Amino acid sequence: MQIILKGGIVINPAQNIEQKLDLLIDNGIIKKIGAIKPGEYSSAKIYDFENKFIVPGLFDMHVHLREPGREDEETVVTGANAAAAGGFTGLACMPNTNPTIDSAEVINFINQKANGHLVNVHSIGAVTLGRKGESLAPIAEMVEAGAVAFSDDGVAVKTAAILRKAMEYASMYDKLVIEHCEDESLAGGAMNESVVSTQLGLPPLPSVSEDLIVMRDILLAEYVGARVHIAHISTKASVEMVRQAKKKGINVTAEVTPHHFTLTHDSLKTFDTNFKMNPPLRSKEDVLAIIEGLKDGTIDCIASDHAPHSIEEKDLEFINAPNGIIGLETQLGLAITELVHKGHLTISQLVEKLSVNPRKILNVPVPQITEDENADLTIFDSDMVWTVDKNKFKSKSKNTPFDKRLLTGKSIAVINNGKMFIDDNFLNITG
Amino acid sequence: MALSTPHLLGLNGVPKEDIQLILDTATTFREVLDRPIKKVPTLQGKTIVNLFYESSTRTRISFELAQKRLSADIVNFSKGTSSVSKGESFKDTVKNIEAMKVDMIVVRHSSAGVPHYLTRISNANIINAGDGLHEHPTQALLDMYSIREKLNSLEGLRICIIGDIAHSRVALSNIYGLKTMGATVNVCGPATMIPKELERLGVKIYNNVDKAIAEHDVINVLRIQLEREAGISIPSLREYHNYFGITAERIERNNKDILILHPGPINRGVELSSEVADGPYQVILNQVTNGVAIRMAVLYLLGTAN
Lengths: 431, 306
Ligand SMILES: [Zn+2]
Known about the structure:
The complex is a heterodimer of chains A (431) and B (306). Chain A is of the alpha/beta class.
């Protein structure tokens, strides 16, 4: 089967392409790039993507699928469906499932569930068995099963001693540790410590608890000579530490979530648990520092920290509600609205942060928009104005603070693995 | 006259006119409480639920008494917070209670924001009887009433709240309410007991209790919460008493005219010495009757608004 993507603006910063080009895709493989005349390939189905952006498929490196363990909240397939609807062709899932992703068996199970899907699902293995911080999980075995990185996300790796060993061990396979930076002794609060937590009487989570672990991890990465990736960076001081570390040539990278560059802790004033997450929403000053970090490259990528929770679990008294929000289906719209339309990033820079860089960090090949390559593409409209409707999400969960929010910019279609997602449907484009 | 809101969730943002109305209405009810027959039929036919998810004998009894004096029908629901995670969710409990046609809910909970949450899941008038470390508006109103009773006005007064400000819901409500009424409010305590950026609410922070006594007309001395986080915030109760405790010697030396409030129950020899608690000083302890009058006023104003 042949399809033609007509009139789109093809951008791939990894190849230095930024040009209006038609694409012919034959059985899921890119067969021609350049102007395609009307009538050429008469049997092909033509998609008019005039002035829409066609980019290497977006990749979300921080997703919580709830399978195995909480299939009522999300499964590998529903999470991958949500990713496709949000404009993503690849994702990496965090290991805090039940059982934990701390063995090849669990990775094989996830691979099997994701088999044949449009979205490539990669597993991040736990650093330590059960994420308990006591002994190393079987890292080599998990690498062999396909793990792209290691993390105890939800918590930081418990001690510097075991983190050091994990960094050394993972380095043998050129894999890195992804850190949820939070000092355990300062953890346990419900919102960012500030005048707002003081006013609301909610147990505070100080920003310094993140900074302490970012500092520890940067120092260890330098000492060991390993790579480390800071998940969901949220404070001004942490951004500055990463900036300085990069200047010194230390191998540290960082991601930020859309909610941490969009919202501040002022949103907590209604005690709506959909604003409760960890790291918590921070101050305006932190948000501005994060945007600066995105602009100057200190923050390499954007990741959702998609964290599904059932309605019953989230609809509770504030301190009893769990942390986290879903984000796969709002991420691209928020990034375009908040970063591109506000003049902080160009489309090309956005594509780096949502497609190229996360793959580079995880050593996953970046899709090439080249003849005879697999078509792994996202097509989005940067000007489409739409209203978020949680009831239309593909995700099994609805815990979003962005319901009813007006966004500018939306994914129109994704193509990968011989499949296409468009108009709310998966199509087979092979055979 | 009516309040500008159907709920009393806290004193943050409550206009001066509302506070004035509550205090004035309480004065009327205070007189009722001195009569031989202390009951009025004002809330006859209204059903009030006291939803206490955290133990609090004094506040609960005060509310109950106020409700009885106003002839309301009362349903009491108490639940230890420990059992919250098991069994029925808070929302389901509220939905079940609502099915009984409830007009008002008085709520005490260990999580800040529960009264606000209740306004979203219930149609009743909500009264906050203490939510986490957030607010306890009727306690602050009763403190304000008691100060006004002694000193006639709140306008222009200098009031200092002394103790573990970070673990007090009374402090925050007092700060909001008193500032609205034109008083200057400051706080005093060890730095470990002052919540982050409190000064941004327009209060000054004292770490020297002598100075705090000398520079204020009223001190509101908070109970040091032995069972809560005091343990990690101070070296010992003895050291707290030596450096922050209110003693007769400190009063004599710094300000003999000061009015002292203590919401009770006192930890004698910790935040207040026995000499002060029992001595000839201007001390307001446990204003039980005023508390009932304030709660009658709030219940009456919210319960008869429609
Ligand atoms: Zn995390």
